[in-house]
Specification:
Blueprint: E1 2-6, E2 12-21, H1 27-35, E3 44-54, H2 59-70, E4 74-77, H3 81-92, E5 99-102, H4 104-120, E6 123-124, H5 130-138, E7 140-143, E8 150-153, H6 164-174
Parallel strand pairs: 1-4, 3-6, 4-5
Antiparallel strand pairs: 1-2, 2-3, 7-8
Length: 180
C-alpha cells in the first residue's frame, strides 16, 4: 500500500508504504520449516518512508511517478485540505492513478495499528529512517471522537512539527489489509 500525507500549511509532504514482511531464514531454520518441525513465525509488516520533502512543490508529480511505477493505489486522508490540492492534480493526470479516500476511522485504525505493531514487535522498518524516527519523537496521541480513538498529532506548542512520515506510513499500514 502507498499513502500520502501533507502538513496542514504545506510545510512538509511524505509518501509512505507498507507491505508484508518475512525475515530471511538461515539454512537450518529453512530446513525445519520445510520439514514441518519449525516454529510458526508471527506475521510481520514493514513500513517505509519512500519520499519526504520540505514544501509541496512537485509533490504530486513524485506521487504520480511512484504510483505508476509500482502500480498501486494512492491512499489519502479525505479530511486534509492541503492533501486535497495534490489529489486534485492527481485526478487530472492521464492515466490517472487509482485514488483511495481514507476516512476518520481509517486514520484512527492506522495509528492504532502502528502502536500495536510496535508494542507486539510485529512492525518493522529497515534502515534507520530519520523522517519516521523524528516524527515518532514529536508526535502526540490526538484524541479523535469520544470513544477513545486517536490519531497522530502535532504538539500544541509546535504547529510546524513534521509528523507527515508517521501519518503516511500509518495510512499505508491501514490499507495493507489485515495487518497485525
Amino acid at each position: 500500500a502507498l499513502a500520502i500525507s501533507e502538513h496542514p500549511d504545506g510545510e512538509w509532504a511524505s509518501i509512505g508504504a507498507a507491505w508484508e514482511y518475512q525475515e530471511p531464514l538461515d539454512f537450518a531454520t529453512a530446513a525445519w520449516e520445510l520439514d514441518g518441525t519449525g516454529e510458526e513465525r508471527p506475521r510481520r509488516v514493514a513500513i517505509a518512508l519512500l519520499w519526504h520533502q520540505k514544501t509541496t512543490a512537485g509533490f504530486a508529480q513524485k506521487v504520480l511517478k511512484l504510483a505508476r511505477t509500482y502500480r498501486v493505489p494512492v491512499v489519502y486522508d479525505g479530511a486534509s485540505q492541503s492533501t486535497a490540492v495534490e489529489v486534485e492534480q492527481l485526478r487530472r493526470a492521464t492515466p490517472r492513478p487509482v485514488l483511495t479516500l481514507a476516512n476518520t476511522n481509517d486514520v484512527r485504525q492506522g495509528a492504532t495499528k502502528v502502536m500495536n505493531g510496535l508494542n507486539l514487535g510485529t512492525l518493522v522498518w529497515f534502515r534507520e529512517q530519520e523522517g519516521i524516527a523524528n516524527a515518532a519523537e514529536v508526535a502526540i496521541k490526538r484524541q479523535i471522537g469520544g470513544a477513545g480513538g486517536f490519531g497522530f498529532g502535532r504538539p500544541k506548542d509546535d504547529t510546524h512539527a513534521d509528523i507527515t512520515p508517521l501519518e503516511a506510513c500509518s495510512l499505508a499500514l491501514q490499507y495493507l489489509g489485515d495487518a497485525p
